[in-house]
Automatic annotation (TrEMBL):
Pfam family membership, one: Peptidase_S8
Protein name per its UniProtKB record: S8 family serine peptidase
Peptidase S8/S53 domain segment(s): 143-394
Species whose genome carries this gene: Anabaena azotica FACHB-119
Top-level division of the source organism's lineage: Bacteria
Similarity remark: Belongs to the peptidase S8 family.
UniProt KW Protease keyword: yes
Catalytic residues identified in the record: 152 (charge relay system), 191 (charge relay system), 348 (charge relay system)
Record's keyword terms, sorted: Hydrolase, Protease, Serine protease
Lineage: Bacteria, Bacillati, Cyanobacteriota, Cyanophyceae, Nostocales
Length: 400
């Protein structure tokens, strides 16, 4: 028996719910998450799926994640290939796909020594986005009371730059429908610690007062799509979370996570995703979805990193380009386990910088709506000397 991910082929939720007026405050988030869940459970195809599973032979199909843990119309089941084939035949409006691997957006290693202390010259990313200049002029926003979910390899909560900043940590097990607390928060790789440091690490972070929810979805760098879907659904229902930072994906445009990303937005969470490190005309899902803030990488001399992914996509009746914007991503120093710092390159490094800037804007405008927060990020970009399809709106900037 294998795990299968089952959902309606088309979403009735977007026809019924509007992204307009979706806010990111905990009070609004609670109401919006309940609303999204209720609409999905009323979806006629979702109801067909649930009834089919209920009527199926118990020995051949076992429901896993369903109404309690999944906010969307997605159902995760364990069943035989024969039952999956029968389900496809009897439920033509349902998308039935076998669970698959999802991996870290593999960073590009930088030829630098590990450090126990970092100097101002190591922190060029802060100057590149105008944050140093703003702080010198009295800029006081630090991301206070904002929570960002980092879905990654985990975060070393004992790193000196991150102590006291990881408010919750979890692992996900879709096969057993479990969300398990991780105490203390730790990293199964080093990637998640590097990402979290760029969001809120002392000295190195964009928004040092931001809280982090750590979700381990790619332990050691590789995970399962089913666990990722469970994590996205769980995050949607955490009222404190306003932004989710994702540096994992599958090469190419694959719609397997699009329903969950859409539900994040509808519940009032801004998804910020790495576009990938495979260069021109290559991208990763979910970093290439139209509903995310898709992030590419720039260099210290304000050029686009050669590895930074980009593409023009034609999906359904829509044509759009990714990434939406870029941020520093080449040779970026941040925290890694073992109380060290390392310079790493990748769109995974640029993505938390954008998440951090989003936290600063949200602190300044706590009642901003989710679509307006996305527009604020796009409006605060510096146009670079590069083709528009490589940079989107340009290099993200902090403004007084």
């Amino acid at each position: 028996m294998k795990l299968y991910i089952i959902r309606p082929k088309t979403s009735s939720v977007t026809r019924s719910l509007s992204l307009i007026s979706r806010k990111l405050t905990p009070q609004s988030r609670r109401v919006q998450a309940v609303e999204v869940k209720a609409f999905w459970q009323q979806d006629p195809v979702y109801q067909e799926i649930v009834h089919w599973i209920s009527d199926a032979r118990e020995d051949d199909i076992i429901p896993i994640a369903q109404e309690e843990t999944v906010i969307t119309g997605t159902v995760i089941v364990k069943m035989t290939e024969e039952e999956a084939a029968r389900m496809r035949e009897e439920l033509p409006n349902a998308d039935i796909s076998e669970d698959r691997k999802i991996e870290l957006v593999q960073p590009v290693a930088s030829a630098t020594d590990l450090k126990t202390e970092i100097s101002q010259s190591d922190l060029w990313h802060l100057a590149a986005i105008n944050l140093d200049n703003c702080r010198q002029k009295g800029y006081e926003y630090t991301g206070k009371d904002i929570t960002i979910a980092v879905l990654d390899t985990g975060v070393d909560g004992n790193h000196p730059a991150l102590k006291g900043k990881i408010s919750k940590a979890y692992t996900f097990d879709a096969e057993n429908d479990q969300v398990l607390p991780m105490n203390p928060s730790s990293d199964t790789h080093k990637h998640g610690t590097h990402v979290a440091g760029l969001i809120c690490g002392d000295k190195i972070g964009i928004a040092p007062s931001t809280n982090i929810f750590s979700g381990v979805i790619i332990p050691g760098g590789t995970g399962n799509l089913s666990n990722f879907i469970l994590a996205l659904s769980w995050v949607s229902q955490q009222a404190e979370v306003s932004i989710v930072n994702i540096s994992a994906g599958i090469i190419g445009y694959l719609p397997d996570m699009e329903t969950e990303i859409e539900s994040l937005l509808l519940s009032g969470i801004l998804p910020v995703c790495a576009v990938g490190n495979e260069g021109r005309n290559r991208t990763r899902s979910p970093g290439n979805y139209r509903d995310v803030v898709s992030v590419g990488s720039s260099t210290i001399d304000k050029r686009i990193s050669g590895f930074s992914g980009s593409a023009t996509l034609n999906i359904g009746s829509h044509q759009y380009q990714v990434p939406n914007l870029v941020a520093p991503g080449t040779n970026i120093y941040s925290s890694i386990p073992g109380e060290k710092y390392e310079a790493i390159s990748g769109t995974s490094m640029a993505t938390p910088i954008v998440s951090g800037v989003a936290a600063l804007i949200l602190e300044q405008y706590p009642n901003i709506e989710v679509l307006d927060l996305r527009e604020e990020l796009f409006n605060r970009c510096e146009t670079l000397q590069a083709p528009s399809d490589r940079q989107g709106y340009g290099l993200i900037q902090v403004q007084l």
